[in-house]
Design goal:
The chain is α+β, with helices and mostly antiparallel strands. Among the domains are: about 55 residues, no CATH class; about 45 residues, no CATH class; about 120 residues, Band 7 domain (Tetrahydropterin Synthase, Chain A). The chain is built from ten helices and eleven strands.
């Protein structure tokens, strides 16, 4: 049934007879200088229109049915679905009362109850020291975040990435204990990295300690966030780059190259020493062994000669003449045994020529015998 307009004819332009814009029920002044609307008249007209909209009138039973339908629809609006990657936090009058897992769940609807859905399996990444420009899709540096003071009073440009997620065991801490979780994680990460870098030296940061910084900083970040009861779990810390400041990076590279050359030459010298020293020690041991052998041999020979001399002397005392002759013969045998010699009998008479090259003849005969 159409609405009834009981306000009388309107003026052109949609205005009412009082000269102002139409009120919320089609009449009444809306501009300055108009007469204020009659509240009782407005309520009466509203009731008339509701009765006209309800077939057979709008009595007490109709009002009760209308209210019951409204309450039923309001209660049905409390059903909600939690996705597989989410957990639901149920609130009653703003107070946390429990968690719900994936699937269809129910909580009293607004304004009595409400639900907060959190993606507890989603990984989030925060870059510190650099950021992505959305317009050009390029990475830009943020020096106020990346420049850090080292333990030896140098400056290092450290860019890193923190991968984190909501702790699925304590999602209520994430929802209620901190107001801006991403900003909190970023501030804690930067603070923890500055503390780790502040305990290190620049050269170790650039070389050996890069892989040590990541687990140390992750442990420190997690400890601080657990102290805040932030409900955040740090999954990984990735060092993107660790460099000297851009203004002195060329000088640092020269220093690094010189240190690498120093280490290379040192290793070569140690290798040469490891090769030469064992050889020298082996030669020294060999010389010592030869000297010991020569000493033992000489001492043994001396003892043998002394024993032989003593024995000969004992025999000489028993028969001096015979011993003297025997010694003479043995000496002559030892002297003339290795030389060429010719024995001439003095009784041969005049048959011996004054000169005869016996030595050359003997050499010729020996050479002829060798050729055969």
């Amino acid at each position: 049934m159409p609405w009834n307009n009981q306000d009388g004819p309107r003026k052109p332009g949609g205005q009412n007879p009082w000269g102002g814009p139409p009120g919320p029920w089609g009449g009444g002044p809306g501009g300055p200088g108009g007469t204020p609307p009659d509240i009782e008249d407005l309520l009466r007209r509203a009731q008339d229109r509701l009765q006209g909209a309800m077939p057979g009138g709008f009595g007490a039973k109709g009002l009760i049915a209308f209210l019951l339908v409204g309450v039923l629809l309001w209660l049905l609006s409390g059903f909600y679905i939690v996705a597989t990657n989410q957990v639901g936090l149920n609130l009653l009058f703003g107070k946390f009362v429990g968690k719900t897992k994936e699937g269809l769940n129910y909580n009293l609807p607004y304004p009595i109850g409400s639900v907060i859905k959190l993606g507890v399996t989603d990984f989030n990444a925060i870059d510190i020291g650099s950021a992505m420009r959305l317009d050009t899709r390029t990475q830009v540096d943020i020096p106020e975040e990346s420049l850090m003071l080292t333990g030896d009073e140098n400056i290092a440009d450290v860019k890193f990435r923190v991968i984190w997620k909501i702790d699925d065991q304590k999602p209520e801490d994430y929802a209620f204990n901190i107001s801006n979780p991403p900003a909190t994680v970023k501030a804690v990460a930067e603070s923890a990295m500055r503390e780790i870098v502040g305990r290190s030296q620049i050269q170790k940061l650039l070389t050996a300690e890069r892989k040590v910084i990541e687990p140390q900083s992750q442990e420190l970040m997690q400890r601080v966030l657990d102290g805040y009861k932030a409900g955040v779990k740090i999954m990984q810390v990735q060092l993107l780059s660790v460099d000297p400041p851009a203004s002195v990076i060329s000088a640092f590279r020269d220093v690094t190259a010189a240190q690498q050359d120093r280490d290379r030459l040192k290793n070569e010298a140690e290798g040469y020493a490891n090769k030469v020293v064992p050889e020298a020690r082996g030669q020294a041991a060999r010389i010592l062994q030869e000297a010991e052998a020569y000493k033992e041999q000489t001492v043994a020979e001396s003892k043998g000669q002394a024993s032989r001399f003593t024995q000969v002397y004992e025999q000489y005392k028993k028969a001096p003449q015979v011993t003297r002759e025997r010694i003479y013969l043995e000496t002559m045998e030892r002297v003339f045994g290795s030389v060429d010699k010719v024995i001439i009998d003095k009784g041969a008479g005049q048959g011996v020529v004054p000169y005869l090259p016996l030595g050359e003849l003997n050499k010729g005969n020996a050479a002829a015998g060798g050729a055969k």
